Amino acid sequence: MGEGSPAGAVSLVKSRFLTTGRGIAGDPALLVTVAVLWALLALFVLFPLVELIQRAFVDEGHVTLAPLAAVLSDENHRSSFFNSLFLAASVGVLGTALGFLFALTSVRGGLGRHWLTCLDAAALLPLVSPPFTTSISIIFSFGPKGFISHDLLGFTNVSPYGYWSTALAETLTYFPIAYLTLRPILAAIDPNLEEMASSLGGSRWRIFRTVTLPLAVPGFANAFLLLFAASLADFATPLILAGNSFPVLPTQAYLQITGMFDFKGGAVLSLVLLVPAAAVFLLQRYWVGRRVYVTVTGKVGQRSRSRALAPWVAWLLTAGCFLVAALIVYFYALLLWASLVRAFGANNSFTLNHYRVIFTEGLPAIRDTLIIAAIGMPLGGLYGVLVGYLIARRRFPGQRAMELVAMINYALPGTIVGIGYLIAFNDPPVALTGGVLIIIACYIFRYSPTGIRATVALLQQIDRSIEEASSSLGAGSGETFRRVTLPLIAPAFFAGLGVVFIRSMTAISATIFLVSISWTLITVRILENMTELALGPAAAFSVFVIVVVFVVVAILSAVLARLRAPAAGAAARSFLGG
Amino acid sequence: MANGIRLDRVSKRFDHTVKGEVYAVRDVSLGVGQGELVTLLGPSGCGKSTTLRMIAGFETPDEGTISIDGQDVTHVLPNRRGIGFMFQNYALFPHLSVFDNVAYALRVERRDEKTVRTLVEEMLAAVGLSGYGRQHPHQLSGGEQQRVALARAVVFQPKVLLFDEPLSNLDAKLRLEMREQIRELQKRVGITAVYVTHDQEEAMAISDRIAVMERGVIVQSGTAQDLYYRPATEFVARFIGRTNLLAGRVLSPSDVEVLGARVTLATGRPAGSAVRLVIRPEMIGIAPAASSIPIGRVEQRTFLGEKTDYQVSLGGERLQVAATDHYRQPPIDVGQSVAVHFHPEGIHILD
Prior knowledge:
The structure holds two protein chains of two kinds. Chain A is mainly alpha-helical.
């Protein structure tokens, strides 16, 4: 799942407007809000990170690299580092290729609108699903009793674990990010450019090679980096599929802590992960992301049908896309099937028993998850809108810093955030571990940045004079925010709500460190079921999560459609970008 | 002056990425009397909008003080100043109906809903929008949106009404209509108002007084007549109306030489000194008389209905001449020699 992936070029925006002269000192509401937000950011973003680094590199008051040396001297840890990089690079290449296939087919394949919708739906399905769905389906398909490996092909002794299955699962899970990144770029390439090249006598292949591809290069780099980061941070897939033969950093750090209770080792391992993650993030943000230019003119739909693809090529591409889409749909159908039969692969008789199990034994997890999502959703939505508003509309000291700090937990791999929280909040002064607050806080500060971005983007389209008008009519800054700004940024608010809710239902990488006897999560229960080989309940849980997420997304989309405020569509799209 | 607006040596600086710190407004002092409408007129970037925004409180002056009705408001928040502001882009609340837009200030004041209803209905009727209450701004035309904005700015009886180029998004005909409506309402309510525009005709039509701004400074303020007939600087002369700016030399206490001709004009300056003269096009007469002095030549003729414009070359200059009595005489053809006559009372000497 796309947790922690900086999907979509993150645009932190410096307001283009001249600053209003009124300082923070003259506005008590602003002063209090900024102070409270800083306190929260300090507690839930900076403090855990500092604690994590301290735990890793400070020993009895001395800074030491000994723990790092110890970790690096371990053969297993070293190989997990290189495995992580290798896996991330593979997923980056494969996912970008697949994303390009879909983008090209979508933009140039000449498909009808309904076919495109089908293709989109299949491609975007993985983005709103819990993290294990593809992994579970791969085990169902390629395991010892797998549907494909055993039933269809007759193999008896295959293992679904290791590099290949992990890479396959991650590619299928994350390629939609590449698709969403590349599609607007391909769509923005002016067909006139290609038509001109064609009028100069270039062959189709030549035009594609010399015009279309070079124009898409920054997009490729961007997609690759986004996928690389997503794979690097992915925890759920390798935990299930990688197995002992292919250790990667996030799982290794997890095992270090849960298996050996070695907090220091886990901290160091997670920070080793930080190095490539930060490098890729910075590269994507400040180098590649800025070179990707898509001009949005709003004149979609009137461009001429490009002739840059030969008919047989278009057919081939379309066939490839539908093959992949069919595979995805097959995986989800398999999941549903597995949730409805007694014992997958052994006893295929119909039963609702697994659902009975999850709604009885599994009920605490469902209840806890829904409570956490329901509390986190409004708070996260409000937080996102508030920070976005402050960034886009107000001027106060430390504004840039707040902008950056608010993004940290979003950009960091979940493993780092989770271990940081675990270490920071385990002991006084702020002992929160085991409670529900820590899980909610983790989700809010990790997934609200999508809402922040949506708010900033929306506010840039709303002229500042609207707020000035309210002010001139006697409303103070708080009242203006409530009466004017808030209704206008409602779409961003709902988009932020949606993302926090979806992630609260589907995330695991950070919160697996934070669950306790009193508060647990569906995703954690799925993992437990998987390790206990209780595949039926795992499948049933997954189906339940997918259904809930789809229902909530549908409701929020309906709400968004009713809000006639400008740019509601853009905010709706950011559901998927998060 | 107890009531009205008073700006005292107000300055505002901005940080410019290239030029460094630049003055948007410099040392501006201005008084607007109770019920008076004063226009800030000037080209874009002259500081007129910044001045207005400082009166509104959207910007804070770096130096100087601003007071409204005798109360120093320099550091008072906009919402506590009692101002009605009309924006260039109307800035209506897109999520509120026309009624709710107009009612906004009253609801902020927590007036009871019955009063709100009465006042808003009255106001909508006053701007000719009765029955539009339930519509949303995007369903209205530009002129209608403008009237909603006007109603919204006036309904809560602010002490001061401020206009920031409110008509520049409207077409020419509507602009004329709207400015009459604004002026009428302002006079009827008797509210103190400051109006910003770059359109000199609009300024002359709507204002009691005009303050012309150039590069952050008020270069001249006065009635439209003052500015037109007695501009203080070349800039004002050129900005307001069309003008002929001519160099002259004082010959005697009562004579000036202009374009090689002797014109009777009392300058009060010593003989031999150079002067610059402003002569409006309609203050020059031409006639097809071959013998008169000075002799010019018609280079271009444009018939504009209420007048005929001529361009006449004379002594190396090209004069703008407007014949408003053209219905009495046959038009003068291009290429014809003409006698040029300057009406002495229409000549203004620049300092």
